[in-house]
Amino acid sequence: MPALELVPLESIQSCILVLRGVRVILDADLARLYGVPTKRLNEQVKRNARKFPEDFCFQLNPGEVEVVSASRSQNATLKQGDNLRSQNATSSQVGHGGRRSLPYAFTEHGAIQAANVLNSAAAAEMSVHVVRAFIRLRQLVVNHKAIAAKLAEIETRVGAHDEQLAAVIEALRRLTAPDGPRHRRKIGFGKPV
Length: 193
Fold this sequence. Notes:
4-stranded antiparallel sheet; 8 helices; 4 strands; rod-shaped
C-alpha cells in the first residue's frame, strides 16, 4: 500500500488521453501503473478477448500512434525535470521504439477489467486510483461546462446592459446638447415684400 501513495492522482491523469472521442489510457502506461510488463498486460488481454469489447479496449491505428507520439514529444519539451524523463520513456514506447505491435487503449471500464484479468493485488489496488483519476477528469469537464455556461449567461446580461447604457448616454447627450437654431417669427418691423 505505501508504494501506491507515491503515485499522485495528477500523474495518473496525465496518462489519460482522448482518442476516438473517449478518455483512454495506453497499455504501456497502464502496465507501468499496475506494475507489470506491457507484454504481459497485452497477453492477458488477448487471452481474455471476450472480456474486452471495443468500448473497453481498442488497438490504435498507425495514424493515432503518430498523433499520440507527436503529442507526447511536444508535451515533453514543455515540461522539465522528472516529468520529462518519465514522459520520454513512455513516448518511446508509444512510437516505434522497440514495439512490434500497435498499442492498445483502455477506457475506464477496460482499465478495471485489465486489473481483474491480471489477477494481482497491486493491479487491483492501483485500479481504484485509475478509476478515481477518470472520475476526477469527468468532474473537471462538467465543471468546465458549467463555468462556460455561466460566463455565456453573464456575457448576455452585460451585453443587454451595454445596450441600455448606450441608450441612457444617448438620451443624456440629447438633453445636454445646445439647442440648434429655431425658426421663430421675428419681432418688429420687417421689410415689405
